[in-house]
Design brief:
Length: 324
């Protein structure tokens, strides 16, 4: 038989347990209610870029080059919109010095233009989600307006070749280039990159820029004429860089690029099968050979060690070069 004392001590415990069960049931009810109201995907974790804005808009023509190109200035993180011809000539002033044979400079002009054009069709994003086409560093091509040595030969090369683009195996492709090694004309050709050192030998042998392009980007290469757009490039032309964004630190530029025979040549990646398609067309009749400015072996050897190092620094990394 329970005593008065034992009965009195059990009552508060029963009330306490009953209150505890009610609280638990209420909590369970709240959780279940929230689960029914909130969609499952909303509860999944998302990365910063997942709520990304729509894909970056790229250039959509393989017959006419873009009017402008978005350049990521790696050091500052700014993205500037640059008139496309100005960009090409500025890169040439850093990558393809004018003391090379003019035929080599002209072949380089085609390579620089098509490399940038290809990437304008496949834009990328910075880590914070901003759209750009190319970096200004060895991650793509060197765009350094403050350092480029632009000469009249660069304008002439751009004017001569502006209406030409390349189609390989029926595709518009990425035109890589680098410095290469000493050797005979075309001895290091792979079909995907223009090698400046041996191309100089080609020019000294009397070959024009069209022949040089076929040697290094062939076989199955079509040189398509027409659709260049725009007028000739005047040596006095200028363009204001419009900053499309400012703050934010730049995404780190992966160093990978050719060392063309340009001063601190570091440029453009090799062309694996290109992403975009173009209809193959017949190769136009070869124009008469372009005038050749000969550079003798003795003249090349007399270049100072520092100038030679500056001319042929090779920063190409195996990852960009693999398989080609």
């Amino acid at each position: 038989m329970p005593t008065a004392n034992s009965a009195a001590s059990e009552q508060p415990i029963q009330r306490s347990m009953s209150r505890y069960r009610r609280l638990v049931l209420k909590a369970v009810g709240v959780v279940v209610g929230l689960a029914l109201l909130v969609p499952a995907q909303a509860m999944a974790p998302q990365s910063a870029n997942a709520a990304a804005s729509p894909a970056c808009n790229g250039w959509d023509s393989t017959s006419r080059p873009p009017d402008r190109i978005r350049v990521l200035r790696v050091r500052t993180g700014r993205i500037v919109s640059v008139e496309f011809r100005k960009y090409v000539i500025t890169v040439m002033g850093k990558e393809w010095p004018s003391y090379l044979p003019q035929a080599v400079v002209e072949a380089g002009a085609v390579a620089v233009k098509q490399y940038a054009w290809f990437h304008a069709m496949s834009p990328r994003r910075t880590n914070d989600g901003r759209c750009f086409d190319v970096r200004d560093s060895t991650g793509d091509q060197l765009y350094k307006p403050e350092l480029a040595r632009i000469r009249s030969d660069h304008y002439r090369a751009a004017d001569t070749t502006w209406g030409v683009h390349l189609i390989k195996d029926g595709r518009f492709f990425m035109t890589g280039y680098r410095r290469g090694n000493k050797g005979a004309c075309g001895s290091d050709a792979t079909g995907w990159k223009l090698f400046a050192r041996t191309a100089t030998r080609c020019a000294n042998n009397g070959k024009g820029y069209r022949e040089i392009l076929r040697i290094y980007y062939g076989p199955n290469l079509n040189l398509v004429s027409g659709g260049g757009g725009g007028g000739s490039v005047a040596a006095s032309s200028s363009d204001t860089e419009a900053a499309t964004s400012s703050s934010s630190s730049a995404s780190s530029a992966s160093s990978a690029s050719s060392a063309s025979s340009a001063s601190s040549a570091s440029s453009a990646g090799q062309g694996a099968a290109a992403e975009s398609q173009a209809t193959p067309v017949a190769v136009p009749v070869e124009a008469p050979a372009e005038p050749v400015v000969a550079v003798t072996a003795s003249q090349l050897e007399t270049i100072s060690i520092n100038a030679w190092r500056d001319l042929f620094v090779d920063t190409w990394t195996p990852s960009r070069d693999a398989g080609f």
